[in-house]
Amino acid sequence: MTLTLRALLGATVSLTLAGAALAETTITVATVNNGDMIRMQGLMDDFYAKHPDIKVEWVTLEENVLRQRVTTDIATKGGQFDVLTIGTYEVPIWGKQGWLVSLNDLPAEYDVDDLLPAIRGGLTVDGELYAAPFYGESSMVMYRKDLMEAAGLTMPEAPTWDDIKAAAAAMTDKSKEQYGICLRGKAGWGENMAFLTAMSNSYGARWFDENWRPQFDGEAWKATLTDYLAMMNEYGPPGAANNGFNENLSLFQQGKCGMWIDATVAASFVTNPNDSSVADKVGFALAPDTGKGKRGNWLWAWSLGIPAGTQKADAAKAFVAWATSKEYLEVVAAKEGWANVPPGTRASLYANPEYQKVPFAQMTLDSINSADPTNPTVDPVPYVGVQFVAIPEFQGLGTAVGQQFSAALAGTMTAEAALAAAQTLVTTEMTRSGYIK
Amino acid sequence: MARKVSNTRKTVVTLAAWSIGFLIFFPILWIIILGFKSEGDAIKTPLQVLFSDWTLQSYHDVQARSNYARHFWNSVILSVGSTMIALAIAIPAAWSMAFVPGKRTKDLLMWMLSTKMMPAVGVLVPMYLLFRDFGLLDSRIGLVGVLTLINLPIVVWMLYTYFKEIPGEILEAARMDGASLRSEILYVLTPMAVPGIASTMLLNIILAWNEAFWTLQLTTSQAAPLTQFIASYSSPEGLFYAKLSAASTMAIAPILILGWFSQKQLVRGLTFGAVK
């Protein structure tokens, strides 16, 4: 009897220990709906093979919904997520607030020094890396080589805004629904203001001077907005005030745009013969400048961060390290080809001869390298960020200013009136928030 | 005696009604059509879209990527659960307001309706903190409670309007025959108000099914209904129109079918008491 009892007890203890060893840790990953993130969800077998004790639950949401959802959760310490997909705008703000776990202790084989300096710089606060970049992007000129050739023009690798204006004029034929240039016009801090803020950097403009005084009443902003409106009104598609990334992508793929200046990630869409009618006719160039030392391109990275309140930081770190590693890039390349590897994060990817064969690889790298989030403008500024200002107030401010500029594009107000309204509303908000004493 | 209407007038009115109906339904029809197109075709001009090839690829992709069944059952549980609880609370409340009104009944009704006037986002943080502290985040119970409270004013108002149309003398007669309050509501009032209760129930289910603020903010994965299923296919950067349309069609199909089969009941209930 005693023996039986002992045997039963022993078996129970063994089973309990075995169960504990096999116990799964489930982490919840909040992510955006973009091609690279969706692809990763299909490649999880590699992660599960390396970490059989971790299960990943995905929550995929539209970018703006996700932003609101995770901001609420992290600000209230709701603890609903263990890994967050966040942008370059959030990381410096959340890192300063102490809302994110530092990733400085990632293992040596992760090779943090391989991360592109511009991208890494945007994710680092006071020497602490607060998010690991999953995919990085800048913006560049995508143009129709056939239309340029027909117009007798050649696109320089590093064009000026005057080159762009001349090319737009030469390629426009509105009777054939062929528009020289397609740019973002839809209001929003991540929509038209991402483009216009980056463009303004190349004109020598800035959002604020060193004392946080708004600069929309300066000549540089006036020149930026006037040129943008002139190009769009003369050579742009109708209804451009409602056009964002997707609308312009659709126009370009249908062959209706001579040029499109937008995210480098669009290169894979416009050169995909399944979706694009102009796939074999697209050329790439750096975003334009005016010779003042800054180009009109932005810098963005979707990165993986770990909220400070998570109870599963170790499992979350294991996932982040895997998803942003060099090995993951090889997994994607092996299964989906090098053109589908998440771009813009690691120097080693661009040194890879296989990846160098991808037509837009070098231009993407050059575009990323030419943006500096810590020194984004010609004149000094007190903020970090190329196409945004990394302060919590910017989402609201950027969208409010974007509405003025979008209204100017729609023709309901003049450029001067839009700039004056922007100056007033930004001054009011910055004074109320205590930036302007 | 009915007025004479000429055939021409009849034709014009019928054509106008069908045209307006088609215009209202067109966005839904277009979503259904885009769901059967490839991503490349879905962004073309309307005529090119119509004459391009039809495919089930988007439905296949959506099925492969998402757990539709889980979202669907969550939607069913949330909408039906919240509607049943709201009805259980609202029927006695509407009875008392309709048949034994007090001095402040009208004010009370207006106050209930006024709670719908505040934007939901205004109470997001306090609600989130309450849910966090009570362990209700990403739970069906918590969301059923929220959806019940959100729609309760509308349910009470609708039932109150229907009950007002029922002659109080019938209830008095039941009382004279010795019916208790419970029997009066259950066996006399409710059967007479079935069309009104049915249309209220259907409308409430539709409202709860489509609720997309709280269901997105308070769920993560386990309790997430079809609203989150749709939100996962939208993107400001990328080509997802066909998949988004397929996901939207799958999300609205159940409620569309329910509305189709119950339209007689719905119209009867909504026009209840319109003609005396």
Automatic annotation (TrEMBL), chain A:
Subcellular location: Periplasm
GO CC, alphabetical: periplasmic space
Pfam families: SBP_bac_1
UniProt superkingdom: Bacteria
Keyword Cytoplasm recorded: no
Signal peptide residues on this chain, from the entry's feature table: 1-23
InterPro entries cross-referenced by the UniProt entry: Bact_solute-bd_prot1, SBP
SUPFAM superfamilies, per the entry: Periplasmic binding protein-like II
Keyword annotations of the record: Signal
Family assignment from sequence similarity: Belongs to the bacterial solute-binding protein 1 family.
Record-given protein name: Sugar ABC transporter substrate-binding protein
UniProtKB/TrEMBL annotation, chain B:
One of the record's GO cellular component terms: plasma membrane
Membrane topology designation: Multi-pass membrane protein
Domain ABC transmembrane type-1: 72-262
Record key words, sorted: Cell membrane, Membrane, Transmembrane, Transmembrane helix, Transport
Organism superkingdom: Bacteria
Principal location class: membrane
One Pfam family from the record: BPD_transp_1
Coiled coil (residue ranges): none
Transmembrane segments: 12-36, 72-96, 108-129, 141-163, 184-209, 240-261
GO biological process: transmembrane transport
Subcellular location: Cell membrane
Family, similarity comment: Belongs to the binding-protein-dependent transport system permease family.
UniProt protein name: Carbohydrate ABC transporter permease
Organism of origin: Pseudotabrizicola algicola
